[in-house]
């Protein structure tokens, strides 16, 4: 064997050992990390058994693993450890060993992020799959195209938001490869998990239900409390309900406007919208009304159009607050514990907030500062990329950075406009935010020492 061949094998073995050590270290840290989240979350039951308003692939995976004696929690910890290691090595190749190590510690020491691997939720799988998808999208690996397509297919079969992520990844993949045979291979293998999920689902149910109806109810009710919301602009049959909800949520908006902390306001606004989604018809004033729920639930498409037509600015502002609220970590728990008498709909608000075992105040305060810093760097990177993309020739490095920014921001904005904010949604793209920020910092570091960057 030639000297060059021996060196190649040696390097391959060395990196294999490093991968293994880092994987074992990651699994150990995840195992020993304090659990901020309970194993069973408020919506876990929808995935522990087949449900008409949930995709069933997570249930299929859980039951399949149980049959061979593997716990879904153990599987999630292993998968997350593996995905973190692959993503960190990808960051090392994009930046340096130093930035790779910084990224690794930012990800693995985020107790909130790794705690999801210990919960019964499809996000626990989605987190890991997105990490892997990004690596396989941008690096040429043997069998990488098929693995990438299967990963995207599984994400789309786990949760509706997985469909969005897969679509964004496919758009990047299509731009990268143009229309050639790779696109058709992708489509074929992408379809496999979706066919399996659909076959099982429709063997159990005749049709799917979605949470879109609850989302529209939430938007309508939370916005009804604003002064700019004119009840007479809406359908006559909705007006009796809106008169009651306006009184209930006008107090809420007055309370929120009194808050100086923007992140706290965004976080609480999201929870109040969750109350509007799921507890509106439990409010005492609404119960006395004896309002027929079907008036809303059978006309959600028309009602959503009415919201856009009559209160678009309020809807836009609400959505941007939700974008911001994704970055708010734990402020509401500390506030609610100290101000129960000042907070309107307090008991409903507690019910809307999922259980969480928060760290001490110093740790929590440090985490909040870090996330604000991450938001600042990501925003600066986004504007810089937007400026750079239209002024220079797009090389491979710039394309990768632009694609990652596009993936992160498209996802977060879509969530803001279609649902509510929660750090749980941010955690899906959290490692990619670390990747993006490290790329940005590395670029200016290289520029300072006269090396090429993007």
Explain what you see:
Helix content is 74%, strand content 0%. It folds into two domains: 3-208 and 361-448, no CATH class; 212-352, no CATH class. Mean pLDDT is 89; it is low at 1-10. The protein has 454 residues and is mainly α. The chain has 22 helices and no strands. The chain has helices at 3-32, 45-48, 57-67, 72-94, 97-108, 111-115, 123-138, 144-158, 160-177, 181-204, 212-224, 239-257, 262-278, 284-289, 294-297, 300-310, 312-325, 331-338, 346-352, 361-389, 396-418, 423-448. Helix 1 crosses helix 4 (72-94).
Structural features:
single chain; 454 residues; mainly alpha; globular
Look at the structure and give the mean pLDDT.
89
Task: Name the overall outline.
Answer: globular
The largest β sheet comes out as: none
Helical residues, percent? over 70%
User: Approximately what portion of the residues adopt beta-strand conformation?
Assistant: under 5%
| Low-confidence region ranges | 1-10
């Amino acid at each position: 064997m030639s000297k060059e061949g021996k060196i190649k094998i040696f390097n391959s073995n060395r990196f294999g050992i490093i991968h293994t050590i880092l994987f074992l270290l990651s699994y150990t840290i995840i195992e020993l990390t304090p659990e901020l989240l309970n194993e069973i979350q408020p919506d876990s039951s929808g995935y522990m058994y087949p449900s008409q308003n949930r995709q069933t692939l997570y249930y299929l995976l859980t039951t399949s693993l149980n049959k061979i004696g593997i716990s879904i929690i153990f599987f999630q910890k292993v998968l997350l450890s593996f995905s973190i290691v692959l993503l960190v090595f990808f960051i090392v190749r994009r930046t340096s060993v130093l930035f790779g190590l910084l990224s690794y510690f930012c990800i693995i020491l985020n107790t909130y992020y790794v705690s999801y691997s210990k919960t019964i939720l499809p996000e626990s799988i989605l987190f890991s799959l997105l990490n892997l998808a990004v690596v396989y999208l941008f690096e040429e690996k043997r069998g990488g195209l098929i693995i990438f397509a299967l990963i995207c297919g599984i994400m789309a079969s786990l949760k509706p938001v997985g469909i969005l992520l897969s679509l964004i990844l496919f758009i990047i993949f299509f731009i990268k490869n143009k229309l050639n045979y790779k696109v058709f291979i992708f489509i074929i293998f992408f379809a496999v998990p979706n066919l399996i999920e659909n076959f099982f689902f429709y063997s159990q149910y005749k049709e799917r239900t979605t949470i879109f109806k609850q989302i529209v109810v939430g938007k309508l009710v939370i916005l009804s409390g604003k002064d700019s919301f004119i009840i007479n602009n809406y359908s006559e049959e909705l007006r009796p309900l809106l008169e009651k909800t306006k009184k209930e949520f006008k107090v809420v908006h007055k309370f929120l406007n009194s808050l100086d902390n923007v992140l706290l306001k965004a976080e609480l606004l999201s929870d109040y919208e969750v109350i509007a989604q799921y507890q509106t018809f439990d409010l005492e004033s609404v119960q006395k009304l004896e309002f027929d729920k079907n008036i809303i639930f059978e006309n959600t498409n028309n009602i959503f159009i009415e919201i856009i037509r009559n209160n678009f600015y309020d809807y836009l502002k609400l959505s941007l607050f939700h974008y911001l609220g994704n970055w708010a970590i734990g402020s509401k728990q500390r506030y609610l514990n100290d101000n129960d008498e000042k907070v309107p709909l307090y008991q409903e608000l507690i019910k809307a907030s999922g259980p969480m075992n928060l760290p001490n105040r110093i740790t929590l305060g440090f985490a909040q500062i870090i996330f604000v810093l991450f938001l600042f760097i990501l925003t600066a990177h986004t504007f810089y990329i937007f400026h750079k993309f239209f002024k220079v020739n797009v090389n491979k490095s710039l394309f990768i950075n632009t694609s990652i920014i596009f993936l992160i921001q498209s996802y977060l904005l879509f969530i803001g406009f279609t649902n509510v904010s929660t750090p749980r949604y941010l955690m899906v793209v959290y490692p990619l935010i670390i990747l993006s920020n490290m790329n940005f910092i590395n670029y200016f570091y290289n520029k300072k020492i006269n090396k090429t960057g993007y």
